[in-house]
Specification:
Layout lengths: L5 E4 L5 H15 L6 H13 L3 E8 L2 E13 L4 E11 L8 H15 L2 E6 L6 H9 L25
Parallel strand pairs: 4-5
Antiparallel strand pairs: 1-2, 2-3, 3-4
Length: 160
């Protein structure tokens, strides 16, 4: 990691670079790439949401990484949890400490908000991400992740 990398809160001016990073992430995990206008819209919404935060790691060449997070009240435990739905580092800047720098920024948000847990998801196939998070002290929880796929107006028939 070069000493010129720093983490800051994102602005709407970062939308194009965050979009490019989101496309890299989609390719890495085998998802369809997002639409640029959808990323721009969501970024604007997140920047206005008090319980959300978008961080970028910026180097001499511009934005080289990004993370988004939610500060969620956890009724079950009576505290707050920070969920990190996205952390991505530009391919040509991986293994330079950018991810660690972004996670240090996430931990700062955690501390400021009195959260006691950071949650994130990595697919089984994304071994590099899982190893990275384990190196930061994360443990793989014994949970089953379920996702609703389909239309909420026309859910699948449970009998089928």
């Amino acid at each position: 990691m070069g000493s010129t990398n720093e983490v800051r809160e994102a602005t709407v001016e970062d939308a194009a670079e965050i979009y490019a990073l989101a496309c890299e992430l989609a390719e890495t995990v085998g998802d369809a790439p997002p639409r640029e206008e959808a990323v721009r819209k969501r970024l604007k919404e997140l920047l206005e949401e008090p319980r959300a935060c978008v961080l970028v790691a910026e180097g001499e060449g511009g934005v080289v990484g990004a993370a988004s997070l939610w500060i969620k009240p956890d009724l079950a435990h009576g505290d707050a949890v920070v969920e990190v739905p996205m952390l991505v580092v530009a391919e040509h800047h991986r293994r330079e400490g950018v991810g660690r720098l972004l996670m240090a920024g996430v931990r700062s948000v955690v501390a400021r908000n009195g959260a006691t847990l950071i949650e994130l998801v990595a697919t089984r196939a994304n071994v590099a991400a899982r190893e990275f998070y384990r190196s930061l002290g994360f443990v793989e929880a014994d949970v089953i992740s379920l996702e609703f796929v389909g239309s909420p107006e026309d859910p699948p028939d449970p009998e089928e």
